Amino acid sequence: MPLRVLGKGGGTTTDVIQAIRYAAGLANDSDRLPDKPVDIINMSLGGGSFNQAEQDAIDAARAEGVIVIASAGNESNNTVTFPAGYDGVVGVSATTITNELAFYSNTGAGVDVAAPGGDTSTDLNGDGIADGVLSTLGDDSGSGANPEFVYGMLAGTSMAAPHVAGVAALMRAEAPTMTPDQFDALLAAGEITDDRGAAGRDDSFGHGLINAQKALVAASGETLQEFIVVSPTTLNFGAVLEVLGLNIDNAGTNNATVNNVSTDAPWLTVTPQTIDESGAGIYELRADRSDLEDGNFRGEVLVETSANNSTVVVVMRVSELDVNADAGFHYIVLLDESGENVAQETAVAVDGRYEFQFDNVEAGRYELAAGSDTDNDQFICDAGEACGLFRTLDSPTTIELDEDLSGLEFITGFRTSLSSPGSQADDGTGDDRVEPIRIGPPPAKEFAQ
Amino acid sequence: MKILLLAACLIITGCAKTASPTEADAPTVQIVTRSAHCESRQAGARLLVGISEASEALGKSVETNIDPNRAALILVSLGTRPTPGYQVTLQSSRHKPDADTYRLPIAYEEPAEDAIMAQVITTPCALLAVDRTPGIHTLTVPLYGGGETNVYIN
Q1: Fewer CB near the last or first residue (10 Å), C or N of chain B?
Q2: Which residues make beta-bridge pairs with A369?
Q3: Which of A9, A73, A137 sits opposite B115 (nearest CB)?
């Protein structure tokens, strides 16, 4: 039931109150009632100040069994906006693609739960698409009388709140008699979230990041299943790489154990690198090209666990010409979590490899990129320019830097053709969706209120 | 003697014209289009070379008959804002050029303090077309949040 309460220039408390009352099947100024009242109200909006009539409308809706959810607000304030700040409203803060609090999200006592709100200023997963939330978008900035309705990658607590509303709807489908108080109790007990930030409830994430699976299980009264997640599900050594990593993570109840990790490829070895007592963690895959003829090779890694089995496809290429590969003068760039360039080096190809080293880097989480800037526009990875990300363009991986690291190998090359003559360095980079990456001094990031 | 006087008068008239441009000498400014989701996340202004660059900067297709050779395309960005409702507007009065510099008659609108807004991050901007006028080489653009910047148009 979409009810529009905002227009150009925003909306009024009166309209919001009327919409709440109509949605909940309560008497309102329109003298009309819906055929069926809603179970859940999502308000991706905020502003104004406390209004008793609005609090009364929310109380009345809750009394009818309606779960009311609203955005915490985008001003980076330590107080949530209204209506999220009213009693009985589930206030939702926003997280990024790395499950951290978004830079714009309001915090405070009114935050009950966190959910993905995105950050369109970054592309940390390197998929060429801003790290926002795919959203419906009405663009009324044009000259036409009617807005243009499209989809767009947007960011905000407006995007976060509907994630919680959607999960609440799933729960209601599973447990139609669940009341707002029961929803609140499950939320407060951590039954429908993954705790983030300070242990227990905190003002940034509330009771944690919403988890649809846990919420459905909680609503159904069943128990979580064991399962293991393996990522990535494909790995490409290309023509140069010798070592890649495989993540095996315990999910669900966290009780599954890894029984065996093996491969059918004689040129591939798999060894545990950093694992816990359950066997979950990072496994090292090492390719050995010695004694192999030129050509493409394919193998599989089988992950067997007490809960579920997974297969990872691994490909590799052997080519004599690769030692002569040269994708031109290269910039190697270290990016922080916000995607800003924090350090860079330059290198030329020697025997098909670019060597680089960063000194005096602060501990933290980083991504590595490399590429050429043939058009001298201060961006690498433009169309027609060489480009690479650690570990691969398909699966960029964040580097946890807390001590000296070495052996960070990855492929760079041209993205336009995997088979163009004389460009063996392009192997494994067959993806043209990477956004150009700035080289040189990064611009200062700002968010003025 | 009459000839000498006439020559002096011409010289004086010419100097006065150069020193004191009037509002009538101001280039025509128009807002071509706006977008709430532009690429630039910093408040600022810059010259665009053509329509395709404008489309890229605004994140949407810009359709206009404006010839960039006859009108400078200026992108004015408001930076990253917490909600919709921020935009560039054109003032009705025209400024007087200062020698070869013209200050764009623009202002900025914000949502009312108590307005209820969608909580979506925006990066608003506007595409302005400024007629290329003989003698005007620099545009001074007031920036959102304070300050100004100069854009050199030829």
Answers
A1: N
A2: A333, A389
A3: A9
Between B97 and A20, name the one with better pLDDT.
A20
Residues 10-69 on B with a CB inside 8 Å of A are: 33-37, 41-43, 60
Which two tokens mark B86?
């921020």
Single pTM value for the model: 0.66
Residue A41 DSSP code: E
Q: How far is A13 from chain B (nearest CA, A)?
A: 7
Q: Quick check: B36 and A141 in contact, CB under 8 A?
A: yes
Percent helix, percent strand, percent coil in chain B, to nearest 5: 20, 35, 45
Task: Determine whether the interchain pair A120/B145 forms a contact, defined as Cβ–Cβ distance below 8 Å.
Answer: no
Our CA angle for A351, A357, A358, nearest 5°, is 160
Contacts of A444 in chain B (CB under 8 A): 42
The pLDDT mean for chain A works out to 85
Distance, in Å, from the CA atom of B35 to the CA atom of A232, rounded to the nearest integer, reads 37
CB contact under 8 A, A16 and B145: no
Q: Determine whether the interchain pair B115/A447 forms a contact, defined as Cβ–Cβ distance below 8 Å.
A: no
CA B57 to chain A, closest CA, distance in angstroms equals 14
CA neighbor of B20 nearest in space, from B135, B141, B152, B149: B135
Residues in chain A: 449
Q: How far is A380 from chain B (nearest CA, A)?
A: 18
Which pLDDT belongs to residue A417? 30
* pLDDT at residue A321, as a whole number: 54
Rounded to whole angstroms, the Cα distance separating A158 from A212 reads: 18
How far is it, in rounded angstroms, from Cα A418 to Cα A433?
15
Q: Are A427 and A418 in contact (CB under 8 A)?
A: yes
**Can you say how many angstroms the Cα of residue B59 is from the centroid of all Cα atoms in its chain?**
20
Kind plus residue range of the DSSP H or E element containing B6: helix B2-19
Angle at A137 between CA A131 and CA A138, to 5 degrees: 155
Chain A CB within 8 Å of residue B121 CB? yes
Give pLDDT tens digits for B62-90: 888 889 889 999 999 999 999 999 999 99
A114's tokens: 């966190």
How many Cα atoms occupy the beta-carbon half-sphere of B89 within 13 Å?
A: 9
Residue that is written with structure tokens 């309606």 in the block: A66
Of A10, A157, A444, the CB nearest to B115: A10
Report residue A403's pLDDT band, with 50, 70 and 90 as the boundaries.
Answer: confident
